[in-house]
Structures are given as C-alpha cells and as structure tokens.
Amino acid sequence: MIKFQSLARNVEIGANSYLLTVGESRILLDAGMHPKQEGKNALPEMESIDYDSIDAAILSHAHLDHSGALPVLQRSQPDMPVFMSAPTKVLTEALLHNSVNVMNYKREQTENTDYPLFTHREIGKVSKKWHSPRQNESFNIGRSGKTNCSFYEAGHVLGAVAPVIRSEGRNILYSGDVHFEDQTIIKGATLPQSGIDVLILESTRGGVARPPDYSRQSEARKLASSIEECLSARGSVMMPLFAMGKTQEMITLLHEQQNKGNLRNIPFHVGGLSIKMTGIYDRFTSRVRRNHKGMHMMRTKGLLTTPGKRGELPILNGGNIYALSSGMMSERTMSNRLGRHFIQNPRNLLVAVGYADPESPMARILNSMHGENIQIDSRHDPVERNCSMKTFDFSGHAPRESLIEYVEKLKPEITILVHGDQPAVEWMHKELNARVPETEVIIATPGQEIQVG
Ligand SMILES: [Zn+2]
Ligand SMILES: [Zn+2]
User: Fold this and answer.
1) Which listed ligand is nearest to 186 at the C-alpha?
2) In what order do the strands lie in the sheet with 82-83?
3) Which of 61, 128, 271, 407 is the most exposed place for a label (fewest CB within 10 A)?
4) Which ligand is nearest to the CA of 62?
C-alpha cells in the first residue's frame, strides 16, 4: 500500500514537503520554507503529524523551499534520520544559518514573535541526524527493514538528487527539482529510464513553452555581447543572482565566454552569501560529476573580486560586472543596496536570468517604465529607473517538453504532479492525459491523503 500527502498549503512552489507511506514506513520528502509567507505560515502544514511518527526524511537538495523548515520538523521527530547527499549537507547547513540571521532581523523589524523559527544552536543539534549515503549505494530506510532507497543525480544544483524508494516490490521516484540538460557546471540528470511504478514529478516550467530554437550556447553568446556593448559605452552590468546555484553557474558561463574571446577579461564582483556558497562549490569540485571539474572559482586568478569586509558594498564604477545576491533584490541584500544607485544611471544594464516573484523589488524594476520612480527599499525614497534591462533564460529546471518526454519513456502507473503553480500543473495534467494514456495523472491536493497503489 502506498499513500501520498502534500504538506504544502497551496498548489504552488512554496513550502515543498510531502509525506509518503509505503507499507509500514512513513517517509518525509523535503521540508521547505515558503519564500513569500511570513512566520509560521511559511512552514509546511505539519500540525496533523504526530510526535515521533515519521521513520525517515529525505532532502532532495539544499534550496530553502525544500530545506528551510527542516529544523522545525525535526523538533517533533527527534529520532528521525535525514538522508541527503554530501554536498547538500554542507550547503543546507550554511543556508539554514543564514536563514536564522534573516529571521532575527525580521523579528527586530516586524516584531513578529514567530521569529526566529529556529536558532543557530538548534541547527547544530539537529544536523547530527543528517546522513549522507555513499554515491550509488542503496540504503535502508524505515523501521521495518523492508524499505530501501537510492539516490539518482537530478541536475539542477550541486548535490541535487532524485530518490527512488523501493518497498514490497514497488518503486517510487521523487524527481525533486530536475534538469535533464547539462548546465555550465552541473551535468544533466541521470534518472532511471524504466521500472518505476509511481512518479512524483516537479512542474515548475509547466506554464511556459520554451522557444523551439533555444540553445544555451547561443543564449550565452547573446548575454556576452549585451555585456560588451554596455561596458564599451562605459556602463556597468549587474546580475542579481541567487547565492547558491545560479551565481556559480553564471560566473562559470561568463568565464567560458571570456575564454572564447566573446567577453573581455575583467573580474566579476561578488559578495555576501554568494562567496560562502561559491567556496562550497569549490570544495566539491573534484568530488562530483560535473563540467569544469577541478576548477576553483575562488582561486582562479582575475575571476572574482570580493569586498574586504563582510557586508561591505563594492564601489560602483563604470566598466564593472556585478554578480550579487539576492536574485530578487530583496531588501537588506547586496543586490538591493547597490541596485538602488545602479538603476539610476542610464549607461548601466540590469540583467535578469532567474525567477523573480511579482512582489519582489527585482520584478518591480523589470515591470517599470523607463524613468519611472520605484521604491526598492522601504527605508529609502523611491529612485528613478534609467538603466536598460535584458532578460535571459538559464533555468536550472527542465522545460515542460522534456518532462513530458520523460514520462512518455518511463510510463509509470501513476504520475503525481507537484512543485508548480496552478496553470503549470494543469497544462502538464492535460498534456500527459493526451500523450501518455498509460499513466494516471494526479495533481497533489494539499492536505489530502491519496492512495496511489
Ligand atoms: Zn531548487
Ligand atoms: Zn524548488
């Protein structure tokens, strides 16, 4: 018997967390924190989970929408082991500590007494239950001894895995966040091509078609020439980037363009949390399957300049490339602090390469008219946006066409759609029904336990 329950509060990409019951084993897949909600509303719906009732948890990767609530969930499951890849363990620990700093700041600012939802000390305590199985090794999960699991590479970011859970002759695959194509650093997923009964599949890009003539290489060339154009006119370029994953991919992608002669050899300014995350990517550079194996971004001469003191802003001059977090230019981050001055200069170019929530300062800038006043920091007056802007697609998620092709090949009995907004999961549902009639497609309704086998 297999049962599945989404602990997310809505059909969306938010606090991703799922409860899977296989025979006698209860397994938690991911424990994310909602990036937009505040206080306890940002946590998955876990009131219905009894104390000490879950056998094991699996973390697919370190992004906070999959890992951010883990210490809170572990509080009510003190004996629960948590399995994740070795890089995910290091990345998650660093991201959770940073999350405590952000929550402490929010408590000061908003007097929301929910914050912090956990402390630095608690991370130290719960991380003792985190285990990293050896690569390609199947391991036992659950108290019955009849359930085991193995990790497959999911593409996406460093350390991302897609677990396959095997019990009573049934195989369940959870994709986590997945990308089948090679990125600049991270190689494409190596998911099983057969033998899966139940597939739990992400649907991030289900709402948008990718242009048929898209190629990552030509997109990279277009980006390099846009940057060159701006620098030649004595402007500067800023790319607000997520500290973990996107920053390292973009730095390496631009480094490749420099080596090809498409972009001048100047260092990129990075800062804050991105430095820490880039250091972790470097630590694993020879230990994982990746492109540019052995490359140390922090040690490559002339590649990066980092501010001397923690939190210090780089100096805003013409002719520079700033690769700063956060990706959505959230308040109190480097991209926001520098961005307020940056966007006023008509010579400058703001480059968008990732997702920006419609409410975020980044989206407010992207949706603005030239010369419009925009408030990107609530503590300061609005500023005029005079810089130009360009958007490029370097997603770490599979385009919807690849997701459908994968299900077509795998033909699982049941496909459960998760990690997508309503229009995205609905498009996937319709398309799969038409193209893969062998699979029963289910949109995971939050809170509802469904029997899937
Ligand atoms: Zn992710
Ligand atoms: Zn995600």
Assistant:
1) 1
2) 130-131, 82-83, 56-58, 25-29, 18-22, 2-6, 449-451
3) 128
4) 1
| Separation of alpha carbons 141 and 127, rounded Å | 18
Cα(396) to centroid of ligand 1, in Å?
Answer: 8
Segment 229-245 shows an average pLDDT of 97
The residue with tokens 């990690």 is 419
CA 333 to ligand 2 centroid distance, Å: 21
User: Which listed ligand is nearest to 245 at the C-alpha?
Assistant: 1
Q: Is this prediction's pTM over 0.85?
A: yes
Give per-residue pLDDT as tens, 343-361.
Answer: 999 999 999 998 788 889 9
Dist. CA 341 → ligand 1 center (Å): 30
Instruction: Tell me how far the alpha carbon of residue 177 lies from the centroid of ligand 2, in angstroms.
Output: 6
Look at the alpha carbons of 281, 286, 289, 295 in this order and tell me if their dihedral is positive or negative.
positive
pLDDT in tens, 56-84: 999 999 999 999 999 999 999 999 999 99
Domains of the chain: 2-208+396-451 (3.60.15.10), 216-391 (3.40.50.10890)
